[in-house]
Specification:
conserved putative lor/sdh protein from methanococcus maripaludis s2 fold, four-stranded antiparallel β-sheet, 30% helix
């Protein structure tokens, strides 16, 4: 037989009250300890640097399209069949080098006809000269009238004019025959060749035989929007456009594979109008191309360096963006941070913003706290080593 123990309800109530009081006492004691520990820790530490004017070089890249100094369509001046092709696509050619030969027998026949006409005209002249020489003594002796001599002399002049016309026809025929040999008008690189041997080519054919791009110098075309153009105009010295172009430093070129092109370029022209369609102005820079590495139609990026002196710079990690505006946290005398709006140039110097307003020399800025900080937060400033915030500025 088992004995069952029934707990006393009063004892259960007293035990529950005791446990609740103990738990409440423990909780209050823990919060008090946490507050004391938080008070002991104090403000959080943040790295802070002092704004110091810097000398920096801005490197700003703009996408560009390349075109040869000259890109010429090679078109025939006469009709004919392609008889020979002397070059291949991509060949580097010299001015006057033979590219194509057209088969046009009609022009050879015209040359032969012109030669025959010249020989005939010469024979007619000889006959007319004989007649004049024969008539002249008879006229002098009064045997025949002077009219006969004038008639023969006019016939001789007509034959001489016919000879001149035949010689002109021969020159024209030879010129047309020469057009069957198609040569390059400039030094350059041969483009695509859409036709093959035996193709009939006329002067009105839609596609050219090929193109030759003179790439000894290559033009790169790129655009700056209105704000970038204003920044460029304000920072480059000079009162006129020509003076500004003269004072613009040499520019660099980054190729499509990310490699740097070895030759320096020069900005030569700036469009006088801002396009209403794109809101930008067109620039043209010229680069020498001695190794023919650059090709017409290729893409690249033009890098414009710009030297700034006494510039106010802040690392990009020290700023945050809100609704299109830029802000930094500036440390006051009481070590309480305050967000401050800054104006920055469209251009950047590597990992730095160029500040045009909002900061001055001597201001203390939090180096990296844009995620965790809020306005009116008291911090413990940790001064950075001089120059650490500005290392590699000029690279």
């Amino acid at each position: 037989m088992k004995t069952l123990l029934t707990p006393n309800p009063k004892l259960i109530f007293l035990a529950s009250v005791s446990l609740a009081i103990a738990a409440l006492s423990s909780s209050c004691g823990g919060n008090s300890a946490a507050r004391q520990a938080g008070a002991a820790q104090g403000p959080a530490g943040y790295q802070v640097f002092t704004i110091t004017p810097q000398t920096a070089t801005l490197h700003t890249s703009y996408p560009a399209v390349m075109q040869g100094e000259q890109t010429i369509d090679i078109r025939p001046k006469v009709d004919g069949y392609i008889d020979k092709i002397y070059v291949d696509e991509g060949s580097v050619v010299k001015k006057g080098q033979l590219l194509f030969k057209l088969s046009a027998p009609q022009y050879e026949q015209t040359v032969q006809s012109a030669i025959a006409a010249i020989n005939s005209a010469k024979a007619d002249i000889n006959t007319a000269e004989i007649a004049v020489n024969k008539t002249k003594p008879l006229v002098d002796q009064g045997i025949i009238s002077h009219y006969e001599l004038e008639t023969n002399q006019n016939t001789l002049n007509t034959k001489r004019a016919a000879l001149a016309q035949a010689q002109t026809n021969l020159a024209t025929a030879k010129t047309n025959l020469g057009y069957t040999l198609v040569t390059s008008p400039v030094n350059g690189v041969v483009g695509s060749i859409p036709y093959r041997l035996g193709s009939l080519i006329t002067s009105t054919t839609a596609q050219p035989l090929t193109t030759v791009a003179n790439t000894g110098n290559v033009f790169t075309y790129f655009s700056l929007n209105e704000k970038q153009l204003l920044d460029f105009s304000r920072t480059v010295k000079g009162n006129t456009l020509n003076e500004k172009l003269k004072n613009t430093p040499a520019v660099n070129l980054t190729l499509a594979d990310g490699s740097a092109y070895s030759e320096k370029g020069k900005i030569e022209t700036i469009s006088g109008l801002i396009s209403t369609a794109t809101g930008s102005a067109s620039f043209r820079a010229s680069f020498p191309n001695p190794l023919h590495l650059l090709r017409s139609g290729g893409t690249a990026s033009v890098d414009i360096p710009q030297l700034l002196t006494d510039a106010i710079l802040v690392p990009q990690k020290s700023a945050y963006e809100l609704q299109g505006k830029h802000f930094v946290y500036v440390l006051g005398q009481d070590d309480i941070v305050k967000s401050r709006e800054i104006d920055v140039m469209q251009l950047t110097a590597g990992q730095y913003y160029v500040v045009t307003s909002g900061l001055k020399s001597g201001d203390r800025v939090v180096y990296d706290g844009t995620i965790s900080l809020k306005d009116s937060t008291k911090v413990k400033p940790e001064l950075m080593v001089a120059g650490k915030a500005y290392q590699d500025v000029t690279k």
